Amino acid sequence: MSGPRVSKSCGNCRAVKRRCDKQRPQCGQCIRLREECPGYRDQWDLVFRDQTNQTIQRSQCQAASTTITHSPLSPPPPQPSLCPSMDQVGVNAFLHHFVTGDHSPSRGYLNYIPATLGTNDDQPTLVASLAAVGLVTLANSHRQPELVRQARIKYAEAIRSVNAALASPVESVKDSTLMAVISLGVFEHFSGFDAWVRHVQGAAALTVLRGKGQFARGNPTALLLFTQVRTDIIAACTRTNQPFPADMRALQDEAAKHVGAPNAIWDIGVLATRCVDLLWQVMESTGTTQLPDLLDAALVLERDFELAMATLAVQEPFYTTTAEEAGWVGGNPDAIYNGRVDFYLTPWALRAWNNARSIQMIVCEIICYLLKKMLTLNPAAPAAQLRLRRQQLHETVGILSRVGEDILATVPQALGIVAPPSYPSQPYAGDVSPRASVSGAYILIWCLYMVGKSPVTAEPARKWIIRRFREIFQGAGMEMALPLLEDMVRIDQSKE
Known about the structure:
Elements: H1 11-16, H2 28-32, H3 43-65, H4 86-98, H5 113-117, H6 124-142, H7 145-166, H8 175-188, H9 193-210, H10 213-216, H11 220-240, H12 246-256, H13 264-284, H14 291-315, E1 318-322, E2 340-344, H15 347-377, H16 383-408, H17 411-414, H18 438-453, H19 459-476, H20 481-495
Antiparallel strand pairs: 1-2
Protein name: Zn(2)-C6 fungal-type domain-containing protein
Pfam family, one: Zn_clus
GO molecular function: DNA binding; DNA-binding transcription factor activity, RNA polymerase II-specific; zinc ion binding
């Protein structure tokens, strides 16, 4: 029996049972009555929720039926079912949130997964990993405790399957195995920072195990997988004060031979590894004699970043508009900071830009730290040198401020609050919660934290970021966001 029809009306019209004209991004009835339109429910999420409830009910019924004995002379016939399995529900949810599709410009960037998932080879390890992430995503976004248990069971199954694959010389080097490990790294965002770091380190070790030959097979997926792992290990190194692993650097040198045409995203990744090493050197330095050399290296790295970002602007352009021009009329004014909205062609491009900006902010913070230290330690330096250092500090603070504003302008698209004109049927218009785009919340965590903790960020901007972080933690259930949120709250309170 099919379930009841789901209303596609906006929240206000559903509440008072009035006819909704379903205009995007805001209901015409709400505009006419000067009400704040809460937007429309995502039909895909409703489908997932309905499928999940059916599957849970079926599992519970099957569990209960195991206590009933049947006569050996008349075994019960197998009952065909149209209800999807937990694997199907979980994988569908993962693909919906983390793989780019035509229905949304805010969701997904792991669009190399379907090609491997759709091959003729059986992929139990990858399926279990995707299902675990999809189920925990649904469990947290829809507050379903039963799904949390199912997700943990599926996660344990995926870990066992990954371990078995790693023990096989054949399975361990397959793309599907590394994809499974990368996917489980997404799961760790719902567990906590330490678990995520350990998982990222494991993914890097597996990437190294695959060797240089992974790039020589004419497989473009290998480069995408390496880029993903490199991005994650860079983030982990910057948070744990570790240099970039030497074996990953050697693998990067080999991968560079197969990149082909000039690629700004790849080049920025290489610059990011230099940034990681420079940050480690600065944190480990104890004397003052190294300061000039470290500053020179940081200034050169910043100039290289500016050149690479200029190339990225050509290869992955974006454009700036206003909330009103983006169609955000009558919505929650707090959802968009300062009314600025930047639109990117794909979620992959948006993530690449924000990753680059986050690393550029680290470089700028290194420069500011070194300049302030040198000015403090040597206030009697020649006047020309002091003027130069102060000018460099002023310019670097300006870059930090600009890059931070650029990151904040990506939030509306990343969370699916608004959509570019090329996506007229964006399903999340009006929904400002991270549930609207779990993958958007996932890719925003680190870059928003970088802006939130930056000393040049103004108090209103920091408080706005804190509110967004609370939504990410509460709406998407990402445990990793909590310590970052607490750190920003502490910084904000110290400024008062």
